[in-house]
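User: Sequence for Activator of Hsp90 ATPase AHSA1-like N-terminal domain-containing protein below. Tokens please.
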Amino acid sequence: MAKFDEADPRWLVKDMGEAGRNVNNWHWTERDCTEWAKQRLGEVLAGIQLTQPPAAVRTTSLESMSGDAFLNIRKNKLIPSYDLEVRVGWAGELTDGEGNVVGSATGKLHLPHIGDDNHDEDPEIRIVCDTNSSEAERLKAVVHKDGKRPLLDAVHRFVAELRAGGPALTEAAEATAAAAGAETAANGGANGASASGQDGANGAAAAGGAQPKLSSGDAAKARAAKASSSSGGSGGKSISITAKFHCRPADIYECFTVEGRVCVFTQSRATVQATAPGGAFSWYGGSITGEFLELSAPHRIVMRWRFNTWEDGCFSKVVIDISEPEHGNTVVQILQTEVPPADKFGNEDTADVTERGWQSQVLQRIRQVFGYGV
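Assistant: Structure tokens for Activator of Hsp90 ATPase AHSA1-like N-terminal domain-containing protein:
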């Protein structure tokens, strides 16, 4: 019992400093992303070639953007809220068979609504001409028929970045680039390759395992395993994983094909070129690399996939099937084949390490970061 005129310390509110911060973004926070959205739209919508000669049209610049964009976070889940109206300038030229310009026109592309309620749909595009000339009408008709898709792809790219964290992605990329540049300068560029592999150290270590020095016996074991592991197919192992998420198939598909989303859940540098089969990808600063063999949005992804601890030239095959047996409940089935029985250091737990990496460093992180947990 506290003495008279003395407060019981159990009931006093203390300044806990860092210990009392918003741990894991549990409490509701809101960030205004409107200025970032305007800047980013200006970057992704400018200079897009919509159609080719003899009726060539390209976008010029972002004319205007109205509305607002916010990112809310509650219980570590991103909740985007945005409603934007956008106008983009366009300019076009008509050429004859010899490439001579015979007419030109300008105008605007009006997107009246880019919102969180239709993020998985193509927004409406209205084509406006600055004049009523025959050249303008001809160019307008060409854009209406063949020129919308490049613009829509750019809009979807912007929306995916905004929904994955918006300005936080830009800040993280700038910080990573600055840190990498400082480290390269400090090391005189000698350790640049190894520095990239350290990005996201905790995730990469759990996903790819350690790289110890080899004793003479281990080196012999590694050389013996090389013949069977480098070819991948013969002697390779298989991994099968089934996971469930509270989201739509398109949400999971974007987690593997949108660079911003990969950067968010891996918390490290990543590159993803998923516009067409043959595009390369790199996760965890190069610890995981490969290329896309098949892209069937939003239900199937096939990849050529490897750890940097595997023998050079050794790749496995990953097939990701995404289905929605019930509305809002998505099932992800991962089948990975041709996993080598050992890595280049002689460790023979390659399949186990790979499966644990999928579970803890990919699937579980997607649940936690994007709030798709079951």
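Confidence is low (pLDDT under 50) at residues 189-206, 208-217, 219-234.
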